[in-house]
């Protein structure tokens, strides 16, 4: 499978309401290479979710374009999967049916989609919970199920909007490690939004920071100590001088 780069050109976005116009994004140019794990941090309201929704094809930009390879993004597509902060599982379906839903809508035969669902539930450690309803799962497990659903669709690009923001610290750390494993195994392109500077630096192969009003990318650097081929990082990574240095500079970029 050939993966494509994501190319954002001259993106601007304005929300108009009765109170006036909000310029959420301003002159965003960005290329995400196949297989990058790009983390995007920035203060609340700086436009991170708006950018993600435009990449997902859920919001049409006021000005500018997004391409995946040669394709202009105009609507959601099977090449892009979205994981939101709050799990968006259907409460009336069991976990397996929730994971299968995208494949079902695309007309994938039952045996095939069941197999894909069970494989991805195993990937996220939920093999034994396929018959449960979402309300029987913890927040972390629901988030895992949401990730399994995206993986079952096998998108090239995974867009994650603060997926671990609402989880307790321990569950969050476990899911961070799982995400890194998954990324290294599959080589998928991932854009990951977070409020946490530590999470951005820990997970990213490249770290972006946006500034608010109007939303612009003000920081864009590789996370050098997590270059391809390095082992999945442990807590030791956080004590490396390079980690501390990048964390400090990301924090400065956010506060300026
Ligand atoms: N549907 C909307 N209508 C009007 N204004 C909006 C809408 N969605 C977002 N905004 C405004 O656009 C700006 C960017 O919002 P956005 O949700 O993209 O920020 P964010 O960086 O993701 O914030 P957070 O980290 O708090 O989720 C904010 O000022 C917000 O109030």
Strand order of the largest sheet: 6-7-8-3-9-10
Rg measurement, Å? 18 Å
Provide the succession of SSEs: EEEHEEEHHHEHEHEEH
What's the structural domain tally? 2
**What composes the largest sheet?**
6 strands, mixed
Give me the secondary-structure category: alpha/beta
Helical amount: 25-40%
Q: CATH architecture of the largest domain, please?
A: 3-Layer(aba) Sandwich
List how many beta strands DSSP finds: 10
How many helical elements?
Answer: 7
What name is given to the CATH topology of the largest domain? Rossmann fold
Unreliable segments (pLDDT under 50, ≥5 consecutive)?
A: none
Give the name of the CATH superfamily of the largest domain: P-loop containing nucleotide triphosphate hydrolases
Strand composition percent = 25-35%
Q: What form results from the Cα inertia axes?
A: globular
Q: What is the CATH first-level class name of the largest domain?
A: Alpha Beta
Query: How would you state the average pLDDT, rounded?
Result: 90
| Distance separating the two termini | 41 Å
Distinct compounds present? adenosine-5'-triphosphate
